[in-house]
């Protein structure tokens, strides 16, 4: 089944889960699309089965809190940042609920965490104005970059380069093998003092970069030239919440939630709005991602919603 405007417009909430007592701050699909794990401000990690459409397990990180949860390539393992006590990143085995390793180094809140799509490398960005490069097999930082401001960062789909959005005004591209030589490209954008950048993602085809904010606009950039192709707005975010925006897996569409529980979808190429979907969320939709393998997506406030199309196009 191909994702088209009509198929997107037909999506409806199929299931709602009320496993959390506070907002879900992050979730991540497994690469095979079969499961999803969420982290919440209530200090819990909830594991869902996407095929059966039900929660499987709940684990807790009461002492350190949990945010920015990411699956690694090993089965049943995740990395996540702490939002209590310290700013250490933790590597957890879901199988036996035991920590495999800690990654200390940041001394302010971690704001970005991106797992390499090809190996055990990951990068983290923090309010301490650094990006750190890590390997899951070692607790020691493999590389450190001092920046001019707070970063958001992500690997590209090949895992060869990573992008850093710095100070909400410039995007720098680094070659992973020689990042200590500095960026090979820098794109300066017009600074918007009404909002901060809160997320950066590449499209799966590697051609576009999506910058999400805590304001009422997001931007799509040409990943090679740095030109702003589209600025999308018209969704509600009066309380300056960091709202997650996402590409669909085919790189054709961009979607974002809003504080009034609605999801807005645009065509990434033409910039045309193609859908407005009502998720009936009770709070702002802080998290939104499309399943990498199946025709379904998930959105979250303090509740988790699974969506399915209602037509076969």
UniProtKB/TrEMBL annotation:
UniProt keyword terms in alphabetical order: Nucleus, Repeat, Transcription, Transcription regulation, Transcription termination, WD repeat
Subcellular location: Nucleus
Ranges: WD repeats: 17-58, 103-138, 246-276
Any GO CC annotation of this UniProt entry: Set1C/COMPASS complex
GO MF annotation list: chromatin binding
A Pfam family it matches: WD40
Keyword Metal-binding in record: no
KW Repeat (keyword) present: yes
InterPro entries documented for this protein: Swd2/WDR82 (IPR037867), WD40/YVTN_repeat-like_dom_sf (IPR015943), WD40_PAC1 (IPR020472), WD40_repeat_CS (IPR019775), WD40_repeat_dom_sf (IPR036322), WD40_rpt (IPR001680)
One GO process term, biological-process aspect: negative regulation of DNA-templated transcription, elongation
Residues that span the membrane, as ranges: none
Family to which the UniProt record says this protein belongs: Belongs to the WD repeat SWD2 family.
Name this polypeptide is given: WD repeat domain 82
């Amino acid at each position: 089944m191909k994702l088209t405007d009509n198929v997107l417009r037909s999506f409806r909430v199929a299931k709602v889960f009320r496993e959390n007592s506070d907002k879900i701050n992050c979730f991540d699909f497994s690469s095979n699309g079969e499961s999803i794990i969420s982290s919440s401000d209530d200090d819990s990690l909830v594991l869902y089965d996407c095929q059966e459409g039900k929660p499987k397990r709940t684990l807790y990180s009461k002492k350190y809190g949990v945010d920015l949860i990411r699956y690694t390539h090993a089965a049943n393992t995740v990395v996540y940042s702490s939002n209590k006590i310290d700013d250490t990143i933790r590597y957890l085995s879901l199988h036996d609920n035991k920590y495999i390793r800690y990654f200390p180094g940041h001394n302010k809140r971690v704001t970005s965490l991106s797992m390499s799509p090809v190996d055990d490398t990951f990068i983290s960005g923090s309010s301490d104005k650094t990006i750190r490069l890590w390997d899951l097999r070692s607790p020691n930082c493999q590389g450190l970059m001092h920046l001019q401001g707070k970063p958001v960062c992500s690997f590209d789909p090949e895992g060869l380069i990573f992008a850093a959005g710095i100070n909400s005004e410039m995007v720098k591209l680094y070659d992973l093998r020689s990042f200590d030589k500095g960026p090979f490209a820098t794109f300066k954008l017009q600074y918007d003092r009404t909002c901060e950048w809160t997320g950066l993602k590449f499209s799966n085809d590697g051609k576009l970069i999506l910058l999400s904010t805590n304001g009422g606009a997001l931007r799509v950039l040409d990943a090679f030239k740095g030109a702003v192709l589209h600025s999308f707005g018209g969704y509600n975010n009066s309380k300056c919440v960091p709202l997650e925006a996402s590409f669909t897996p085919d790189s054709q569409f961009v979607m974002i939630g809003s504080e009034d529980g609605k999801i807005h979808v645009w065509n990434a190429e033409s910039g045309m709005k193609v859908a407005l979907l009502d998720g009936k969320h009770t709070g702002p939709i802080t998290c939104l991602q499309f399943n990498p393998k199946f025709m379904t997506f998930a959105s979250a406030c303090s509740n988790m919603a699974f969506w399915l199309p209602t037509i076969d196009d």
